[in-house]
Amino acid sequence: MTLDAFEHEKSARITAVDWAALAEDEGKRLKALGVDEGAEVSVIHRGVFGTRDPLAIRIGRMTIALRRAHALAIEVEPA
Amino acid sequence: MSRDDPIRHHKVALVGNPNSGKSALFNALTGARQKIANYPGVTVERKAGRLALPNGEARELIDLPGAYSFDAASPDEEVTRKLVHGEFEGEAAPDVLVLVLDAANLEQHLVFAQEVLELGRPTVVALNMVDLAERDGLTLDPEALSEALGVPVIPTVAVRRKGLPELAQAIAEADAHADEEAHSRWHLTLPERRLAAKHMAKGAILSKSTRHTIENGIDRVLLNPWIGPVILFGLLFVIFQAVFAWATPFADALEGGVGAVSALVTDTMPEGFVRDFLTEGVLAGVGSVVVFLPQIVILFFFILVMEASGYMARAAFLMDRLMAGVGLSGKSFIPLLSSFACAIPGIMATRSIPDAKDRLTTILIAPLMTCSARLPVYAVIIAAVIPQTSIGPGIGLQGLVLFVLYVAGIVGAMAAALVLRRTVAKGAASGFIMEMPRYQLPRLKDLAIGLWQRAWVFLRRAGTIIFVVTIALWLMLSFPKAEPGESQMDASVAGMVADGLHPILEPIGFNREMSLALVPAMAAREVAVSALATTYAVDAADEEVAAEGVTDKIAALWSLPTALAFLAWFVFAPQCISTIAVARRETNGWKWPTFMLVYLFALAYVFAGLTYWGAVALGL
After folding, report:
1. For a FRET experiment, which of B327, B396, B559, B588 has its CA 20 to 30 Å from that of A1?
2. Any idea what the CATH number is for the domain that residue A73 is in?
3. ipTM
4. Mutate which of A19, A25, A36, A55 to test chain B, going by most B C-beta atoms within 10 A?
5. Which residues form the Ferrous iron transporter FeoA-like domain (chain A) (predicted)?
């Protein structure tokens, strides 16, 4: 399951990231923020006015905003 | 500062993740006296100040751009990486590093910290914002962290000046060893660093309550998919009100002050070239710059509060979906918002956009936002040709036309972005990845320093350009001198330029007076009003009286299609040399400002023409 489809405010563990689907700088930024295989994250906000874009996720003690396109490249499983 | 100044000898640099409270710590350590410039060749700001050490000596302290990693993903990070590694041309590597860590986010900040410590440079760690960590229920052990990292760790609260003397002392001690050779440490991979960070953070945290951070609660409201945008638009409404309503008395007072000085010069000096130069050239130039200052200061105040409190990232989050529709991201929102006051600070604010193509597109469309210099032009023309009728409860026709002009600018900008992103600024769909900082109460001193710096940068950049242009235009309008019976405007160089322009502008319904007014209005759009006043020989000392006189003349002499075409022209036309000059500076060359001039004038010509012929066809 991708992070985009994962249940709201539930803890997820990242199993794989399709780095090839992301621009180089975006991949670097996500890695630097700790979004990488093995990390635990949870989706805490999704979209505006009923859209699914962008998302805010919780990782460690940080909140990070990213786009649906990024979330679709992140495979997760329940943690 | 001379080369022999002791401050030159050693340099201390603050380095750390974005949102580590680095800037607040920099302000607290250096005070208000800071030198802001650009790093050579890049539009990344270099902030430097003077750090006093306990032994009475002083060092230059620089605030390096925030970085998540030396594996640079943005121009900011690239500058930090090069500088710290001593690879930056024209700037030596810092001798002492102050690594700033957010105490409440250790696990993340310790990852980059290890990269910095691998350099083996003399380093001191500032464990910053320990108060916020306590608020989040964390109790930390600085000694344990110091042992793990192998460098001194000083707990600080920059905004309350806590821990600053201890930090200065530790910097002085590290400085004493700065000339020793660096001992690079063992290099780790990113996963290894992350694992080590986890262990070190665990070891440094004495206790952790499960108390929820206040962010979750606030964000539940401010980022709510339905309530969040409503709050943001409400806030924007208040900001707009403030920018346009609160600024008026200050702008009037500044204008009055410049007018009084001008009158004094007129009274005390003999008539002639020097007096005209001072009043019509120099003072008019100063006046046209300072009149925007109140609006810009008020706008910057709100922007700084939004930034310092942590709300700005939320605003970008809420606007991202909308901006994505035209190929931009939420990060373009703030520059475009600033452009409603003036495109110059707007274009300068694009520096926060990491993606180069995104940034270029934002710079190119910023002049389409209805800036405050357009208002005097709109006001005069609307008052002259649009009847003061009501077309519904509380909706006047004049107000509706003004609203349509604003919307036309926004729609034009969005359409332009859409086209630019598919043509000249083509690139991968811009991403939007950003850390949302924690909420904080902004501190007055940091706001004051930020406000002063931005106002000063505006005055210096815009001021010098507008000033020079106003004087140049005044010379163009004053020479050669008119023969008796001939109007000065007709005889001048500007008049000749207008004669050349008129055949080009005639097909879109512009009369000769309008062509003439467009020439001096290149300095700033609102000059069109006083230029029209001059051409129609409206003899009035006061600007409001002049505007009234112009309104009467336009009402009598212009057809409705002509007046509407003039309004349409000003929605698009890049009639502002300062904006062009700032765009040149921010894009490092003439290519993009030239492109901006051409595409905006082309849009202005086409839309003024469409408006004119459309209105004629409708029999208006």
Report:
1. B327
2. 2.30.30.90
3. 0.96
4. A25
5. 1-78
